[in-house]
Specification:
This protein has 494 residues and is of the alpha/beta class. It folds into four domains: 132 residues, D-Maltodextrin-Binding Protein, domain 2 (3-Layer(aba) Sandwich); 94 residues, D-Maltodextrin-Binding Protein, domain 2; 121 residues, Periplasmic binding protein-like II (D-Maltodextrin-Binding Protein, domain 2, 3-Layer(aba) Sandwich), CATH 3.40.190; 92 residues, Periplasmic binding protein-like II (D-Maltodextrin-Binding Protein, domain 2), CATH 3.40.190.10. It is built from 18 helices and 26 strands.
Length: 494
Amino acid sequence: MKGRDDELPAFCVNKLMRGIFFLFAILLAMMSFFLPTITFSTTLYTFAQGAEPKYIVENGKMTGICNDIIDALNKELKGKGISISYKSNELKNDSEIFNSLKSGEIQVFVGFGMNDERYKELKYTSIPVYSVTESVLVRKGESKVVVAKNNVVIGTINSSLSSEDVGQAFRNYTTKEFRTMVQAIEALDERKIDAIFYSSITVGFYALKFPEKYEMLNIETKKYYHYIVFNKNVSDKDVHAVEQALKSMFTQRLIDKIIAKYKMQSYMLSGDILEFVTIEWPPYEFSQNGKIVGSDVEIITDVFKRLGYRTSFHIEIPSRAIQRTKSGMYDGVFSVWKGNERDAFLLYPDEPISYTREVMWYIKSNQKNLQDTLNSTDTICGYVNGYAYDDKFLEFRCTKIPLESDEIGFNLLRIGRLNAFATAYETGKFVANKFGMLNKVGFIYISDKERPQYLAFGNSIYTSYLAHVFTQELVKFKLTEGYGNILSKYGIER
């Protein structure tokens, strides 16, 4: 039976299908050609904060440090399908920004501090944008008056993290909260308050802009970081993209350039700069020609460089180095041992940067049997005040004399004022060689084994992250030729 007239022959159907497939193939090719230019845009909305110079509104136009950072981020994110845009030009305070982030009214904010509550409710980049310190602004010429006053009236900004630490700077005080820095400045001008306690970026801005009206109080305060933060529902992919853009900006030193543009170098640092404190402890760390050098200094520098950070080092006396790390002035302290009261406020990585072994040094010609005389009160033993020592040294009954440095100890040993001097083997060898007396001294071991020395961080959420990544990278670095070269450079025996 013949088919119906409206039915197509099989060869026609096949030809039609081949044509459809051919057209489909052409369409796919065209899509693949044009696809790189097609992006699916995600706009992350933000607010500006009423804290100059982070955000400045002039004649309806937004400027400021964080605004410029947002502009630079958008350039880095171009082609990634992500952009950051202002929801409005209205200036908000910390509390309003936090609540807007939590609710999803905005999805991102640049320049937000970290505490436990905020960290729990928001997403943070793993690296901060910049660091600031807590600072105090007073009226011109009234610094001494404010310091001497019994009950100082301090202006703080509503819900700012700095307001939590006023007690670190003042003993007797009362606080008055203000919604914005502008309101606090008005109260300072009207003598309703004696000072303003706030971030160095904003306090420094007013001191710099109006030097005839204001000055900053010279006090030691806590260092803290400002981050890029997100609403919890922002995808990890988008957060990662923004973080990579920030890292690219660090590589190009763009944050440094933005800070310099606003002349704020004295009041803040780029977020990729870490500050560590230590003591004179050659060959691990010591001052030389105006620079801080040493094996531990170079190891820390190289490890963090591999992680994308820059490092800055400071030398203090032992007690001050520990205290300033505890107060949050520095990111960490090295080279320190575990196992004393400082463990309560320091965070130790799993991997030590180096090892040391304590010994008692003596002049060979003056002392034949030091081991037999260490328990005699007639034996004079020197040590450096503030250093941690093995329990066995503390058990010796010799007369112990505290000194200011290893150099003083070896000099007193040389002139016969000491019978023995306690310090690390590598340190003693370095100083004795410096004084040209290495062949004249001997030593006996105090401790039975080597003791690990650590880079210890101040205890916080961020330093916990630093301790983790530092441990991982340090383990890798110790397997490289570079690590061995550093030890050899400073004469350290492996």
